[in-house]
Amino acid sequence: MKMTMHIDEDVLNRVMQVTGAATKREAVEIALNEMARRHKLKELFSAGLGLTPDELRAEFAPGPADALDSHGIKVAETQTPYGDQSGAAR
Fold first, then answer.
1. Taking a C-beta distance cutoff of 8 angstroms, is the pair 16, 29 a contact?
2. H-helix segments, 1-90
3. Structural contact between residues 44 and 59, judged by C-beta atoms closer than 8 angstroms
4. Mind listing the pLDDT tens digit for each residue in 30-88?
């Protein structure tokens, strides 16, 4: 589907950097898929997984790796770009 959107360039550039997306379109698709994945995980976790609310909180308590970056994007770890960026054949 084609549409016109106004997206913060700093956020879009950050997503491209973090994911290694080669195009803006790819970066937006990656970000949308990640949000859908996270929502699905929340739905699954809301089922309880057989744990009490206190046990769930303890298991998924935020740690240092969950700190927000300057754009408000949560990242678990520094991501490397997808694919071989060196241009060398393997």
1. no
2. 9-19, 24-46, 53-59
3. no
4. 999 889 888 887 887 777 677 777 887 777 776 655 554 444 555 555 656 666 556 55
